[in-house]
Specification:
Blueprint lengths: L4 H10 L1 H17 E8 L7 E7 L2 E8 L4 E7 L4 E5 L14 E4 L5 E2 L6 H8 L3 E2 L16 H7 L1 H6 E4 L9 H9 L1 H7 L3 E4 L8 E6 L21 E7 L6 H19 L4 E6 L2 H12 L8 E7 L7 H9 L5 H6 L4 H6 L9 E7 L17 H4 L2 H6 L2 E5 L10 H12 L9
Parallel strand pairs: 1-8, 9-10, 11-12, 11-13, 13-14, 14-15, 15-16
Antiparallel strand pairs: 1-4, 1-7, 2-3, 2-5, 5-6, 10-12
Helix pairs in contact: 1-10, 6-7, 8-9
């Protein structure tokens, strides 16, 4: 069973060795990693593809909307940026397609949690303007999935590959590593977006986002009752020790890519606990350029929309910067930004709130882990199409018969086409 958020936070407060190791890893990242940020300027309405190259090989890429910002976090080295408008949608740079190659992009020191203002400033370091008015011969650039699987080992193992809930990458040891040794996790495991079955274009994808100190295994029982003839489950796997915006950004990029490659007519997003905070930010990042238009159902379970008081206690008492604690502190910049504006009106938001298992370790009513008031943040309630209170604790809500019924009800309420009846 997944550890509760409260237990994780208290473990961090008491576990000096874990905190020191996390601090060491964050310091190592600042010493060895660089940011390669930029912005895209194109006249077209559709996104362009931006690839990061080293030794003429793709190391990573992004789908960037016109006027949008992007960044890569990489080990220090020699890189090039190449942006192109994929006019025929084949994910290859073809003759006649506008492109620009930047041979020596500017880099910036790695930052753990840059503010929105800092991100905007960083994005101005490299401006890309794809054009057909270049005299150079277009390089051979192929971002097809077959080519990526050949050239990028991480994509070959972690992106749209079929797995199951017993995958060793989802083990308790890896969960702990992602919380306290996130750089080791990234090196040995990495972010992942997995399939439980081979992709079927006739099925609707449901993306599942786990919470803190957790993994996709938490969805095993709850998703057993979903109609697998109609829906396709995708598992997002991330290290919970890193800033939430990092994970949200990479999930948003993955979902943009899924829509470009596989073109599902619509998709849905389910999240548990802190995963709801990651998921909502993901939806916000999809909105520019309209990449959220196919997202219909956004369903969360036991999400602490207003953070957790233990996170604030950790930030104030521990002389180590723990990124996730800072994000999870009530009133943090991250939490405030989540509800600075409502999500697009077509997105149907269902919220399942757990209220049983009250713990005496928290002064206010709670579900054994999260304050009820945090789950019932008024701004979150205001956007919910449906809100249900379940007599479950923070983890039992994932195995509840009532939860299964409500998930099916939410999915059955979808119209045959579009998002709203």
């Amino acid at each position: 069973m997944v550890k509760s958020l409260l237990l994780v936070l208290l473990t961090g407060l008491l576990g000096g060795c874990q905190l020191l190791e996390l601090d060491r890893q964050m310091d190592l990242a600042r010493q060895t990693q660089v940011l390669i940020p930029g912005n895209l300027q194109v006249d077209a309405k559709q996104p362009a593809l931006v690839a990061l190259l080293a030794d003429d090989h793709v190391r990573a890429y992004r789908s960037v909307q016109p006027g949008g910002l992007f960044y890569f976090s990489m080990a220090a080295g020699d890189y090039q940026l190449l942006a192109f408008e994929d006019l025929n949608g084949n994910l290859r740079l073809d003759p006649g397609e506008p492109y620009q190659q930047l041979a020596d992009p500017r880099t910036a020191p790695f930052q753990v949690q840059p503010s929105p203002e800092q991100r905007l400033a960083l994005g101005q370091l490299n401006t890309l303007r794809p054009s057909t008015m270049t005299s150079t011969t277009p390089p051979d650039l192929d971002l097809s999935l077959e080519r990526l699987y050949r050239d990028l080992p991480r994509a070959r193992h972690n992106y749209l590959r079929v797995t199951d809930f017993d995958d060793p990458r989802f083990s308790a040891a890896r969960v702990a590593q992602g919380a306290w040794q996130p750089l080791d996790f990234l090196s040995e495991v990495g972010y992942g977006l997995y399939l439980l079955e081979p992709w079927d274009e006739d099925k609707e994808p449901i993306v599942l986002v786990h919470g803190i100190n957790s993994s996709p295994t938490v969805w095993r029982e709850l998703t057993a009752g979903i109609d697998h003839e109609r829906f396709q489950l995708l598992l997002f796997h991330y290290p919970s020790g890193l800033p939430l915006n990092n994970s949200a950004y990479l999930l948003s990029e993955a979902l943009r890519d899924v829509q470009l490659r596989l073109k599902p007519e619509r998709l849905h997003l389910f999240a548990h606990s802190m995963g709801g905070l990651v998921a909502r930010r993901t939806v916000q990042l999809l909105a520019p350029g309209g990449a959220d238009e196919r997202l219909c159902l956004f369903l969360t379970l036991a999400t602490p929309w207003d953070g957790h008081p233990s996170a604030a206690t950790g930030v104030s008492r521990v002389p180590v910067d723990v990124p996730v604690w800072r994000d999870m502190s009530p009133g943090s910049n991250y939490l405030q930004a989540l509800f600075a504006a409502p999500l697009s009106a077509h997105i149907r938001q269902w919220q399942l709130v757990s209220y049983a298992g009250n713990s005496r370790m928290l002064a206010e009513p709670n579900d054994g882990t999260v304050p009820l008031a945090s789950e019932l943040l008024p701004a979150a309630q205001d956007e919910a199409e449906r809100l249900y209170l379940l007599e479950e604790n923070h983890t039992s809500i994932l195995a509840s018969t009532r939860s299964q019924l409500l998930l099916r009800r939410a999915l059955d309420s979808l119209p045959k086409q579009g998002c709203r009846p």
